[in-house]
Amino acid sequence: MDRLEKIYRLHTLLRARRYPVSFAVMQETLGCSRATLRRLMTTLRDHFQAPLIYDRKAGGYRYDTGADECPFELPGLWFSADELHALLAAQQWLESIGHGLLGEQIAPLRQRIEALIARASGAAPTALGRIRILAQGRRRLRLPAFSSVAAGVLGRRKLRIVYHGRARDATTEREISPQRLTHYRDNWYLDAWCHRAQALRVFAVDRIERVAVLDEAAADLPDAELDAHLASAYGIFAGPATAWAVLRFTAARARWVAEECWHPEQESRWLDDGRYELRLPYGDTRELCTDILKYGADVEVIAPPALRKAVADALRAAHEIYAQARDLSL
What we know:
Blueprint: H1 3-16, H2 23-30, H3 34-46, E1 52-55, E2 60-63, H4 81-97, H5 103-121, H6 143-155, E3 157-165, E4 170-184, E5 187-194, E6 199-204, E7 208-217, H7 223-230, E8 243-249, H8 251-257, E9 267-270, E10 276-282, H9 285-293, E11 299-303, H10 305-329
Antiparallel strand pairs: 1-2, 3-4, 3-7, 4-5, 5-6, 8-10, 8-11, 9-10
Helix pairs in contact: 1-3, 4-5, 9-10
């Protein structure tokens, strides 16, 4: 830890504590000698003009600021080495989920962070490559459309969009009041009030072909209503949950599934034979079926009957495809 970082940590300690800090606590926190700590305190007072005083009654040090004064802050932007590394990791994550959206805007900040890290911890700029975020199932995103959608969400303005839905393979023009942008499974979705349908809808941002930000203010829906409609059902398919799925996983697969969160309201239990039972609410079978099918023979749908039939039909259809392929090869 270099001298500047020790000064920053000393300042953070004094700012964070509600009561005066003893000399012993400061020395232990910084891990330095008494002489070093005294030099740091002198630098904090003389160079940075910190109002550092000794409170004899409390037996510790504190900043002498009145109730009506702003708390003392060090000039400039200060980070510890750990905070810089965390900030850089967060930047990598933002860059990953943003599909390059933030690269140009935060490039100067990224360069500054790298320089500060090199000075604070001696890490080489190439260390950045040791942080990896791998996307799965990411779809191509139209950057101008995303920027306009984000502007509508944050600026609370209505949007006019030309949307091509995959399910019906149809293109429609709609006027919507954007509510939330959601990043889900490496893709972006827009929760919005559709004025044509007079209902809440979820739009895949990558399927928005054109978008215009209107001057008219967007209609704001209460958070409770948004949560009830958009967050209660399984996955991205909106609408209130209408049923509970009961899934049982084999003992071999249970060790992995038991650590996963499929839904915020899920319930689970271990069975006596080592299997794992998972219960979760859903309102649409499509995405849930996809997640169930990827576990193959390691999961069984116990209830409800309609979901069990849907998964069984999908497995039967897949079996017929492979059976036909086997017959053709004979």
